[in-house]
Batch of 3 targets.
Target 1
Amino acid sequence: MMTNRYGSIVAAVLILKAGSGVTHAQTPEPQQELRGSIRIVGADTMKDLMDRWITGFAVIHPAVRIELAAKGALTAAPALSNGSADLATLGREFTPSKIDGFHAKRPYDPTGIRVAIGSYDTSGKTVALAFFVNQANPITRLNFQQLDAIYCNSLLRKAPHPITKWGQLGLTGEWASRDIHPVGVNFPDGISNFISLRVCKGGDLRKDIREEHTGGSINVLDRIVTDVTADPASIGYAGFANLKPGSKLIAISEDGGPYLEGTRAEVETARYPLSRYIYIFIDRAPGQPIPPLKLEFLRYVISPAGLYAFAAPHRCKPTGRTSLSQTRTLHGRKYAPLRHARIFVLLHHPVAGSGGANPC
């Protein structure tokens, strides 16, 4: 377990086991007869997927009434915190202010359950992130310790000192004395929060990062890459769809292992370290069981029938792996369902190196 200002990070395996195949006819047998209601609040981008899960769950548990209010990502954390939601859906991790709001009501952390891997290259959605440099920059790859030393104050990845010049990364000649100009999204947006959690290991971002603010007619990640194309000494992060002339992607490695360029296959199997996740958050006190209604709904989500919800009619696009690791297209968005037969529960954000569990 690791703790920081974002709370505990726990990878706890929950009780659940899914089948081995996905077909429209497969539904899990109910563990018990249930009655009652489930209130779900959160991201409007997840509405289609939640509707499919709710419809399928109702077949098994017709006496359970589910209310879905998919009004936007900003509604998820407050509803979970004030008790007006049993489940909160979100395409990102809780930001520090949202966790503080939850802590104002309860002395423990919200529990985030990964339910799918985010998009590979659908702009404006929960996309995997990549680091970009100017096309003229000779650098080709960086590891997380180096990125931490460029972007973060805390140096929790044990770099001996901050990295502020390209020469510290091995560049020579005119590049050796050039200052590094990091660019990013203003904090605490969900994207910059993800960089803080994954690259900085929950530490603080540097104050001198050039920040692009969300909003406006041009996507913030497009603006970051534009900044990189205009400044040879800059580095920034964005989605794969944001690549443009004058910029280039660099390969990354989290722990000194293989350097990955972020191919579609690497992202959709979560091998790429900056793959992102979609969550269902619950209020679960430490050591307490998940209430039966919530538990059965989550059990359905990872069942073969729940995985089938990723396949819109005539839009199923398997990757060639086994059925539990297929990737399907849903309304123009790429989703990768859970490959594993268990739910992995994490507080706020993925555990570095945990791999495997596949959120949306």
Note: The longest strand covers residues 36-42.
Target 2
Amino acid sequence: MQPTDNKGVSFVVCCHNSEEVIEKPIKAILEQKTTGSYELIVVDNNCSDNTIDIIKKIYKESHSDIPLTIVAETRPGVSWARKKGYEVTRFDYISFIDDDNIISSSWTNGVIEIFGMHQNIGILGSSNEPLFLDTEQPAAIPGQAGKAIIA
């Protein structure tokens, strides 16, 4: 990615056989309540299921006007997939969203606002509330609940 003055958010979602979990995260990105600009980049990290077809269907049915880019990364692993997604981003702010994470409808506004107000921040994390759809919630790691990362 080349340095820009393009104040928007590039959402990068890396997928590997995510058909069981991908619907809600993609819809949450497409349904952002924002006046800011954003795009959705999906990295196909060797999916052998219907993940990409499901994403295309969700996107088509959403009638969204945000750009969707789907790229392939054949080397397995989220690090390779994120690097590939990063290479095609077009906005200044990049948000890596796991394929089983559902973001709030104000995520885009929050990212743009925080980075705009604090020019010295280079990376920003958030606290998350996990959803356990088919499994029991594991024991929490002591002292780690609700931590945010700002660097």
Note: Residues 146-151 have pLDDT under 50 and may be disordered.
Target 3
Amino acid sequence: MRHEPVAHEVAHLERQPQQHVARFLDAGMRGGVEYRIPIPGLPRPFDLMFLHCNTRDHTLAFGPPGEKRINHLMLEVEDFDDVGLTYDLGLPLHFARILLHQLRPHALLPAGHELAKRPSVSLAELAAYPLITTDQPQSWQHMLDLFRGRGLSPVAANRTSSFELQRSMVANGFGVAVSYTRPRGDRSYDGMPLVCKPLSDPLPMQRIILTHDTRQRASAAALATLDTYKEEGLLTRGEELSSYWEDALHSLKGEPHVIDIRNIGLIGAVELEPIAGSPTKRAFSAFVKAFERGLLIRTTGDIIALSPPLIITKGQIDELFDHLREVLRMID
């Protein structure tokens, strides 16, 4: 049995989670190793085996020593995140901000809308139509504030669960929208035409930032990651390579079994015609053939999903699609 004293790192964890969780995880704890841990509120330390972190539920899992660990002790903390990538909306002042990019808002309109033929539109013109927003934290309120700051009262018709659904509802004529995210294609994800128009109002740019809580000690890994992102420009490479990626991806048009191709940034999807009576079989065959050629792809249903690392080069993009083109010609 192996014990490592981490009492000074865990004490008062429940009372001050933000301040102690970073030090707690930096104490060298590893899964499958037993530790002597003082639990707040209990008179003596316990021998427990650290099992894992659950970042989604913000919990640390421990079990009793030995092979059978049916019962778990869960310590809940407020946050595990060292660094976040987000819009600069609603963050407390003690969060650091590293600017990566700025986006200009634009209007989303159905293809047959009466404003769709104008070179630009104003918020006052949009306020006369049902407004569709997303229900993501800070987002819908921010969009409404753009109108209200100019004395306008838009009709907030619907709040959707995602940016993709927002675009689809606009394209299908349920209303209009304002968005900062601008895919290169002017179609919704269900294939309907969509019109994007610049806004004539002098609106501020929306900042995309890396952020972290300055009250916590960031881990060495997080700090090194930030340095690497800045030095190598990794978080802007998606935009720089998106046009090259798009051209390479859409060069697969006309290849065997391909019925649709779509992309945003450095993400792409190639939809294959399913084999009658055997859905997913054709895409899985592509996965196997690609793997045999040294190319790892992901499939969902009969769709080949592609999302390369940010360090990918143009030469590697060419190599990727050369392999994928051959794979498509090999499968039945």
Note: Residues 24 and 44 are 19 Å apart (CA to CA).
